[in-house]
Write a structure and sequence with these properties.
Helix content is 23%, strand content 36%. By secondary structure, the protein is of the alpha+beta class. It has 2 domains: 229 residues, Rossmann fold; 121 residues, RNA polymerase II/Efflux pump adaptor protein, barrel-sandwich hybrid domain (OB fold (Dihydrolipoamide Acetyltransferase, E2P)). Helix 2 packs across helix 3, helix 2 runs parallel beside helix 4 and helix 3 crosses helix 4. The two termini are 31 Å apart.
Length: 360
């Protein structure tokens, strides 16, 4: 593996008695799209600002491209940052906005024009070079901010909630554009976001943060299907979380007494004992009007609520024990949503292999 482009080594940041970032260590590889994901107040933006040099760590080291950044001011670091607010100058044209950073750092005039043209080409705004920001859409203004950052040719591009001000449809479009842009320019992107879908759709790897610490770092599919903690399972996507207690083992399967669901047996590698959490994603659950056959975990209940999302519906089923579980139903035809209604008695089932057992 190549030398990391960014190394975070036991980094901490304290504001009085508050530990905003608490002894964080990880590496980011060259040309990687890396996401810092977590709820508000988890420390992700503070960590990004320390990489940029806008905050000074209380402890630890930040190494970029092999150099310790402790004595390097923000304007001399091989990084550039795109902020949530874009900060596009309204009195300048698109090309003047992009050229601004080069002019103030004394870049020779003969270099500025070609570099601005290249940067605008990267973000597909070359034909809008002469326009003013008030003639652009929100997504176009965001791309101006990206071009202004890329024109400096940083080794690492830092993005602080860059899409949060956009509407849902434009945000989804920009997620794809950012991912394609990162592949085209071939530099490391580090994005801060609280939006799970945003991180899952764009990043090569995601660091999930909570209370100033990194809880898990993994590829998006690994985080979703194999979270290592209850917090990560609950934070990434929708989930049914059940409390349980291990009551025995049967080869490579574990018998668990699940809260209000009864005794179930699920596959599990490694040791398992005592109290555990059981994770079942809603899309792994099948609803039916008749009792299912085969090696499945099943229970009967009533539909007590549902939420319609267009392509899917989330059905909430309450068992006689009082346990409520959610199931995602794919609306594959125009009539699919009429299959179940509030008050219907249904069978809920899922495969034992789709149950994840967590020990913390």
């Amino acid at each position: 593996m190549d030398q990391p482009i960014v190394s975070i080594e036991n980094v901490a940041k304290h504001f009085g008695t508050v530990k905003a970032v608490d002894d964080v260590t990880f590496d980011i590889q060259p040309n990687e799209f890396f996401a810092l994901l977590g709820p508000s107040g988890c420390g992700k933006t503070t960590l990004l600002r320390m990489i940029a040099g806008l905050e000074v760590p209380t402890g630890g080291a930040i190494v970029i491209d092999g150099q310790d950044m402790a004595a390097t001011p923000p304007n001399h670091r091989p990084v550039n940052m795109v902020f949530q607010s874009y900060a596009v100058f309204p009195h300048m044209t698109v090309e003047e906005n992009v050229a601004y950073g080069l002019k103030v750092t004394g870049t020779p005039r003969s270099e500025i024009g070609p570099r601005v043209t290249d940067a605008l080409g990267m973000v597909q705004l070359a034909e809008l070079a002469k326009r003013n920001p008030d003639q652009l859409s929100g997504g176009q203004r965001q791309r101006v901010a990206l071009a202004r950052a890329l024109v400096k040719r940083p080794k690492v591009l830092l993005l602080d909630e860059p899409l949060s001000a956009l509407d849902a449809k434009l945000r989804e479009q920009m997620q794809l554009e950012l991912s394609h842009l990162q592949q085209r320019v071939g530099i490391t992107f580090i994005i801060v976001t609280h939006d799970q879908d945003e991180a899952l759709s764009m990043a090569d790897r995601i660091a999930v943060m909570n209370d100033g610490r990194v809880t898990q770092i993994a590829a998006p599919d690994t985080l979703y299907e194999n979270p290592t903690t209850r917090f990560v399972a609950d934070f990434i996507g929708k989930v049914n979380l059940l409390d349980g207690r291990v009551v025995g083992t049967e080869g490579e399967r574990v018998a668990v007494e699940a809260d209000r669901l009864g005794r179930i047996t699920v596959p599990h590698e490694g040791d398992a004992s005592g109290d555990v959490s059981l994770v079942v994603r809603p899309e792994k659950i099948t609803l039916a009007n008749t009792e299912p056959d085969g090696d499945v975990i099943k229970s009967q209940g009533k539909v007590t609520d549902w939420a319609y999302y267009g392509d899917t519906s989330h059905m909430f089923v309450t068992m006689d024990s009082g346990l409520v579980m959610s199931a995602k139903v794919q609306n594959t035809t125009r009539e699919t949503v009429d299959n179940f209604d509030v008050g219907d008695t249904v069978w809920l089932s899922f495969s034992p292999s789709d149950v994840l057992l967590l020990r913390e």
